Amino acid sequence: MSELLAIAGLDCSYGEVQVLHGIGLALAKGEVLCLLGRNGAGKTTTLKAIMGLIPATAGSIRLNGRELTGLPAHEVPKAGVAYVPQGRRLFAEMTVAENIEIGLMARGKGKATRDMVLGLFPRLAERLNQRSGTLSGGEQQMLAMARALCLEPEVLLLDEPTEGLMPSMIEKIRETVSKLRGLGVSTILVEQRVEAVLAVADRVAFIENGRNRETMTAAALRADPAAVKRYVGVG
Q1: Mean pLDDT computed over 70-92
Q2: Given 35, 85, 94, 219, which is the most exposed site by the fewest CB atoms within 10 A?
Q3: What is the mean pLDDT of residues 45-67?
Q4: How far apart are alpha carbons 172 and 138 in whole angstroms?
């Protein structure tokens, strides 16, 4: 596998408490990698470490061979990594259009990028003048993803994007991730819904107590569903 993003020996701590222990992940261009594990396993911390929001105490994070470890957090999106956190973090008082404009400014993108993003989320194009805080939960998730994609990232990090959404919206998010794969965007997805994982992921990495335990293809996971019970605690 040709690695776009390579993470090796990643350690992170919150104060005196070490929470990641030698995490190693590899991501190819256009690949969807899902992180699965119990609550508190270290999945979100891994995403935050990639974004420079939590400093690594050891290890390496490379994008196209460029070392990201140690970069200030505001430089990581400029390097080509976008992050949609749990809770979305939209500017609720701003309109859909204004939230998208902020995304475009981060890497100096313009109308072509805006049109591409709105093409992925036609529902947002109908609501450009609506305040984002008045959107439905699914629409807010779409806007958070749209704003991140305004960076034209090579890697997109999604933290539980389907949490609390209706099945129809979950399907829209899944379709979008699949479309992004076709556009060559690589995605790391933290997701608890096993059926959603199997519908969209190429590979699944199980994280337990801040450590990699096993990485397998989605096809292998379908054939061995007991792996989910081992690491996540559900069948």
Answers
A1: 91
A2: 219
A3: 96
A4: 9
Give Cα 199 to chain centroid, integer Å: 16
**Buried b / exposed e along 32-62 (16+ C-beta atoms within 10 A):** bbbbbbbeebbbbbbbbbbbbebebeebebe
**Residues 115-121: what's their mean pLDDT?**
95
Mean pLDDT over all residues of the chain?
A: 92
Quick one: which of 231, 167, 178, 181 has its CA closest to 204? 231
To the question of pTM greater than 0.70 for the whole model, the response is yes
Torsion sign, CA atoms 213, 232, 195, 32: negative
Domain ranges of the chain: 92-151
Mind listing the pLDDT tens digit for each residue in 164-176? 888 888 898 899 9
Cα torsion 124, 130, 131, 133 to 10°: value is -60
